[in-house]
From TrEMBL:
Official protein name in the record: sn-1-specific diacylglycerol lipase ABHD11
Catalytic activity, as annotated: a 1,3-diacyl-sn-glycerol + H2O = a 1-acyl-sn-glycerol + a fatty acid + H(+); 1-octadecanoyl-2-(9Z-octadecenoyl)-sn-glycerol + H2O = 2-(9Z-octadecenoyl)-glycerol + octadecanoate + H(+); 1,2-didecanoylglycerol + H2O = decanoylglycerol + decanoate + H(+); 1-octadecanoyl-2-(5Z,8Z,11Z,14Z-eicosatetraenoyl)-sn-glycerol + H2O = 2-(5Z,8Z,11Z,14Z-eicosatetraenoyl)-glycerol + octadecanoate + H(+)
Family statement: Belongs to the AB hydrolase superfamily.
InterPro entries found in the cross-reference section: AB_hydrolase_1, AB_hydrolase_fold, ABHD18
Keywords: Hydrolase
Enzyme category, top tier: hydrolase
Residue ranges annotated for the AB hydrolase-1 domain, each copy included: 50-150
EC number: 3.1.1.116
């Protein structure tokens, strides 16, 4: 889904037509036009790199509305929140990995005429933004990575596969009202992953069509079929040179997603990086929103 109108964007000294630009950077990848929201301050400074925010698995741009609005109000730069492919209001595709989602970022930059951006990503979105910075460093000013590591992920990531399989197999009668339907789904999901926080987060994606049929706004089949990409991230970034720009990791002390012992290895990949540990779990931007926003603003305004 490339833009039809032919425009040009300068990347260094090279010019690419928009229609071919993603292909020039990402061969054999079909980029999609992501759904996005823009938040702006009253006095935006167009000389400052815009900030693009990508959510994690099962998330959407809606989850970042409050953070996006707060960040824009405290900085003179644009803040853009996106729905990753197969999530929210963005198109569904069979492919789903960091390479594809990075291509989607390039496509968005073309649509908005951005030459260089700062990036913020949580979990799945964080791995996308890390790959994007490593693969296309000329396009990235600064990076903020929320509670995810480029080195490893916790062993219980297999639970995500169980959740997706349960989501695929859920069958709710059409005559069941939404509230009761949510209770039925909750009962099925809690058997798979006994975490109310995770189940409540997943349930945000349940919808009921006008004809009464229940459906997920996410492309559950594609996410399930591409689960292996979550465990093969090392292969995806292998051989890429370190990203030397400023990077900040914001992690939850009570989350298993970033191992403190891996920090030296992380700094080999991102040598100009810093890390902050907040009293939170995996959803660090929810559970410590004020501190998360304070750290992000301070980092981007340096």
């Amino acid at each position: 889904m490339f833009c039809n109108r032919i425009k040009h964007l300068s990347i260094g000294q090279r010019l690419y037509p928009i229609k071919n630009h993603v292909a020039a950077y990402c061969s054999n990848i079909q980029a999609i036009d992501m759904s996005y929201d823009v938040f702006e301050s009253k006095n935006p400074d167009n000389n400052l790199s815009p900030l693009i925010i990508m959510h994690g698995l099962f998330g959407s741009k809606q989850n970042w509305r409050g953070v996006g609005r707060a960040l824009a109000s405290k900085m003179n730069r644009k803040v853009i929140t996106v729905d990753a492919r197969n999530h929210g209001n963005s198109p569904h595709t069979d492919d789903h990995d960091s390479k594809c989602m990075a291509a989607d970022i390039i496509q968005l930059m073309h649509r908005l005429n951005f030459r260089k951006v700062s990036v913020l990503g949580h979990s799945m979105g964080g791995r996308t933004m890390m790959y994007f910075a490593l693969k296309y460093p000329e396009m990235v000013d600064k990076g903020i990575i929320a509670d995810i590591s480029p080195i490893s992920i916790p062993g219980d990531i297999s639970n995500m596969g169980k959740i997706l399989l349960a989501m695929k197999n859920i069958n709710i009668p059409q005559d069941v009202p939404m509230a009761a339907g949510r209770q039925l789904v909750n009962a099925d999901l809690i058997k798979v992953v006994p975490s109310k926080e995770t189940v409540d987060f997943v349930l945000l994606n349940l919808r009921k069509a006008d004809d009464g049929k229940y459906y997920w706004i996410h492309n559950v089949d594609a996410l399930y079929n591409n689960m292996s990409a979550f465990t093969k991230y090392g292969e995806i970034i292998k051989g890429l040179p370190p990203f030397k720009g400023p990077v900040m990791f914001i992690c939850g002390k009570n989350s298993p997603y970033v191992n403190p012992n891996h920090w030296p290895q992380i700094q080999n990949i991102f040598p100009n990086s810093e890390i902050h540990w907040l009293d939170a779990g995996h959803l660090v931007h929810f559970q410590q929103a004020a501190k998360f926003i304070e750290l992000t603003v301070g980092f981007l305004n340096k």
